[in-house]
């Protein structure tokens, strides 16, 4: 019987996108042959939030928001200000 040992950095890559999901399914199917130590579990749990957050930030930075095509002469000044504030927040 063959066993598989995977470093915690490899597990953490699963938090950084969907490209590796097919490999995750293979790991799940062969769970009984995968060696997981307490240290690996601790490292993955400790770093998973930061990896997920960095993935979310990267995704957010790649989004592009455009102003809707409103007829501005029909929009009140308050709505114009809200649109401008929203654009500033999305750019930051």
Describe this structure in words.
This protein is mainly alpha-helical and 92 residues long. The protein is 59% helix and 4% strand. The termini are far apart.
Low-confidence stretches: none
Number of strands: 2
How helical, in percent, are the residues? 55-70%
**What's the mean pLDDT score?**
81
Number of DSSP helical runs: 4
- Give the topology string: H per helix, E per strand: EHHEHH
Distance between the termini: 53 Å
Beta fraction of the residues? Answer: under 5%
Break the fold down into its secondary structure elements and pairings:
Blueprint: E1 4-5, H1 8-13, H2 21-29, E2 34-35, H3 38-61, H4 77-91
Parallel strand pairs: 1-2
Name a few traits of the molecule.
92 residues; 2 strands
Please outline what is shown here.
This protein has 4 helices and 2 strands. It is mainly alpha-helical and 92 residues long. It has a two-stranded parallel ribbon.
